[in-house]
Amino acid sequence: VYTFTEDVVLPTTYLNDVRFDFRVGTAGYAYITDSSSKGPGAIIVVDLETGNAFRRLNGANPTSPDSSFIPKVEGKILMNRNKDGSTSPFRLASDGIAISPDGKVLFFCPLTSRHLFSISTEALRDRNISDMDLLYHVAYWGEKGASDGMITDAKGAVYAGDYENNSIRKMLPNGTMETIAHDPRILWPDTFSIGPDGYLYVIVNQLHRQASFHYGEDLRQKPYSLLRIKIDEFPAPAF
User: Fold this and answer.
1) Which of 43, 51, 107, 170 lies 20 to 30 angstroms, CA to CA, from 30?
2) What's the rounded Cα separation, in Å, for the pair 163 and 208?
C-alpha cells in the first residue's frame, strides 16, 4: 500500500492508468496518469521501494486537455449534459499511457485530445530537472485519434484506441500508423492488454453512453464486452 501526500494527490486528482518498470531502482517505479477533469493533469512518478511519489509535467500542455478538441462519438458531440438541462464541455487530462520495451520511453496522451506524446523515463525520475525544463524532453508523435487505453508490444509498437471512430490503431517505432480494427462493437476501447497467446485484449466500456452525458439517462447496454484481436506479438516486458 502506497499513501500519497497532498501535494501529489490534489483535491482534483483522478488517479487513472499506470505502467510499471521493475528494472530501475531497487524495487522499480510506477508511472500514473492524473486524468483530472477540473485540475491540472500530470504524470505521477512512484519509487516502489520507498513509496516516494512526485508530480511531473504538472498542468503542462502535453498532459492537459486540448481546449479546441470537440469529441464526437457514434455521430454525436460528447459533452456533459446534466439532469437540469445545463451543459458543459467534456475535458479530461492525461490518461492513456504505455511504456517502451526497454522502459526508457513513456508514451502518454490526454483523454480529450487526438495527440500522442512521449518522454524519457530517466528525465521523469530526475528531480533535478524542473517541470519547465522537462518540457524540452517531451516528443510529439502527431495525431493518433482520441484514445483512452494504450499499450506497447515487445517490438515497441504502440496500440491505441480511437473512441471517435470505433477503432484501434497501431503505431510502429518509426511513426508509421495503421488501423488494425474498425468495428461498431468497439464502443470506447479501454484497458488494453497483450497476452502471451499473441492476442490484444480490449474492453469496451460504453463510457460515452453514461447518464452524465445524456441528461441523466443511462444509455449503456449490457452485457459489456471483452474483445480480442490476433496481433501475433508479445507484451512489452516490465522485468
Assistant:
1) 170
2) 9
The pLDDT, as a whole number, for residue 22 is 97
Condensed to tens digits (0 to 9), the pLDDT of residues 67-79 reads 999 999 999 999 9
- Give, in words, the CATH class of 15-59+68-230: mainly beta
Element (H, E) at 6: none
What single-letter DSSP state applies at residue 155? T
In this structure, what is the dihedral angle of CA atoms 55, 56, 58, 64, given to the nearest 10 degrees? -120
State whether the Cα torsion 234-110-138-25 is positive or negative: negative
CB contact at 8 A, 158 and 98: yes
Which among 135, 97, 113, 16 is positioned nearest to 64, based on CA atoms?
Answer: 113
Q: What whole-number distance in Å separates Cα of residue 77 and Cα of residue 21?
A: 37
CA distance 206 to 204: 6
- pTM across the whole model: 0.95
Q: Is the dihedral of CA 85, 88, 90, 91 positive or negative?
A: negative
69 SS3 class: coil
